[in-house]
Write a structure and sequence with these properties.
about 230 residues; alpha+beta; 5-stranded antiparallel β-sheet; 7 helices; 5 strands; about 45% helix; about 15% strand; elongated
């Protein structure tokens, strides 16, 4: 599948592309992704839509007088489901891009959850990681990295630096993928433009250009252009 070019100044596009790449990388390492949260979200959403559709159909075919009492209960259930959906999205899922587990000889059976976020007008990718360590205790990490680490100047996503970053910063992933963990130095070289990968997006391009001031302008000569006196 050909790589998709995105606008390097669009932070939502940078985040969405990175979010899509994260579970693809983890599932390639035999992590099993759990779709429980997504299934609950879809069930709540479709249930609310179904109730609204049935209420409309009953009112259209039977008339308001015969359905007004049922409509009241339907409206209450509809808003309850929507409230539950809102709570589920913002209180339970919390911008999770991956939730699952891995069963690997080097780590045993461990769970992993990753949520991502970005601040407004800031091209920094933030992730909150929750995982089981080698002793089985729950661990929590908060990591950040600029998108320039894995996007080139043309807007193409470069997977290897992104994988290096995850494997070197998250112990559980590093144990499952030691090759990428040991390749963090290579990722640093990529960031500095010293590898075969295309160069990174220049960070200063995200900044708002400064307006020229009078002090920046080229001074105008005040010397008179009159000819020399004889």
């Amino acid at each position: 599948m050909a790589a998709t070019k995105i606008a390097v100044y669009s932070i939502p596009d940078l985040k969405n592309t990175t979010d899509d790449a994260l579970p693809n990388y983890l599932t390639s390492l035999k992590f099993r992704q759990s779709h429980f949260c997504a299934n609950v979200r879809l069930a709540l959403g479709y249930s609310a839509v179904t109730i609204a559709a049935i209420t409309f159909y009953a009112d259209y075919t039977l008339g308001w007088d015969k359905t007004k009492h049922w409509t009241l209960w339907a409206v209450l259930v509809y808003f309850t489901l929507n409230a539950a959906l809102t709570f589920w999205v913002w209180g339970v899922e919390k911008e999770k891009v991956f939730a699952g587990e891995v069963d690997h000889p080097s780590v045993g059976r461990k769970s992993l959850s990753i949520a991502s976020s970005v601040a407004k007008h800031t091209p920094i990718y933030n992730i909150t990681v929750e995982y089981s360590n080698t002793e089985g205790a729950a661990k929590r990490l908060e990591l950040s990295s600029p998108f320039t680490r894995w996007f080139d100047v043309n807007g193409f996503f470069v997977a290897k630096p992104f994988q290096h970053w995850l494997a070197s910063k998250i112990p559980l992933i590093g144990q499952v993928d030691p090759k990428n963990k040991d390749g963090d130095a290579k990722a640093a070289a990529i960031k500095n433009g010293k590898s075969e990968f295309p160069g990174p997006v220049e960070q200063e391009k995200y900044d708002t250009p400064k307006k020229s001031t009078s002090s920046d302008a080229t001074p105008t000569s005040t010397r008179s252009k009159r000819g020399k006196k004889g």
